[in-house]
Amino acid sequence: MSGCSCSHSNTSGATSARYRRILWVALAINLGMFLVEIGAGLHAGSVSLLSDSLDFFGDAANYGVSLWVLGLGVAMRARASLAKAVTMGSFGVFILSMAVANFVEGSVPDAPTMGVVGVIALLANLLVAALLYAYREGDSNMRSVWLCSRNDALGNLAVMLAALGVFGTGSGWPDLIVASLMALLSISAAVQIIRHARQELRTQPVTLGQG
C-alpha cells in the first residue's frame, strides 16, 4: 500500500467522464447507507454500527470533494487529499473515544440488528469498491477514494464478526474491539494519504499562484 507514481495524476476524456459518473453513484450509495446505519446503530446500541454510519457519511463527503477537484490541477487535488486525510484521522480518534464511553457504561448491543445491517452495508461497499477498483493506483485523491471504499468493506466484515461475538458471549466487548480496530484502520489510511499527497506537492514546480 505504498504511495503510487504521480504519473497517473490526471484523468481526461472518456475515463474522466466515467470516473465522475462512478463517484456520483458512490455518493448516492453512501448517503443512503448513512441514513440506514445511523438509525440501526442507535436502535441496536452498537458503537461499531454507529462508527460505520459516520464512515458512510464521511465517504459521501469525500466523494463530493473528489467530484469538485476532479478537473483541477494535481497540487489542488493533493491539498484536498490532505484535508480528507485529516478528516479520516479525526474520525478514527472520535470512534476510539466512543468505544471508551461504551466500555465505561457497560452496554450490550443488539446482535441480530448488527448482523443484518452489516450484510447490507457489506454488499453496498463491495459494489462501490468494484466500481472504483480500476482507479486504485491513480493520484492521491483517487487513492484516498479507493482506500475509503476498501476500508468500508473490511469494516463491514468486522461488524458482522462483532455481531457474532456479541451474540455468542452476551457481552459488548466484541463491538468495542471492532469499533477500535475500525478507528485504527481509518488513522492508518489517513497516514498513507498524507504521505502520498505530500510527495505529490513536493514534485510540483514551485510557481506562484499554482493550484
Helix count?
A: 6
Shape: elongated
| Beta strand % | under 5%
**Major sheet characteristics:** none
Distance between the termini: 27 Å
Gyration radius (Cα, Å) is 18 Å
**Average predicted confidence as pLDDT:** 77
Encode the helix/strand succession as letters: HHHHHH
Q: Ranges with pLDDT <50 over ≥5 residues? A: 1-13, 206-211
Structural class: mainly alpha
How many DSSP E strands? 0
Keywords: Ion transport, Membrane, Transmembrane, Transmembrane helix, Transport, Zinc, Zinc transport
Protein name: Cation diffusion facilitator family transporter
Transmembrane segments: 22-40, 60-78, 85-104, 116-133, 153-170, 176-194
Subcellular location: Membrane
Describe the structure concisely.
The chain has helices at residues 13-44, 47-69, 74-105, 111-132, 140-169, 173-203. With 211 residues, it is mostly helical.
Q: What tags apply to this protein structure?
A:
ion transport; transmembrane; disordered C terminus; Cation_efflux_TM; 6 helices; elongated; 211 residues; mainly alpha; transmembrane helix
Describe the protein in words.
The protein is an all-alpha fold and 211 residues long. Helices cover 81% and strands 0% of the residues. The chain is built from 6 helices and no strands. Helix 2 packs parallel to helix 6. The longest helix is centred in the first third of the chain and has 32 residues. The N terminus and C terminus are likely disordered. Keywords: Ion transport, Membrane, Transmembrane, Transmembrane helix, Transport, Zinc, Zinc transport. InterPro entries: Cation_efflux_TM, Cation_efflux_TMD_sf, CDF/SLC30A. It comes from Stutzerimonas balearica DSM 6083. It is found in: Membrane.
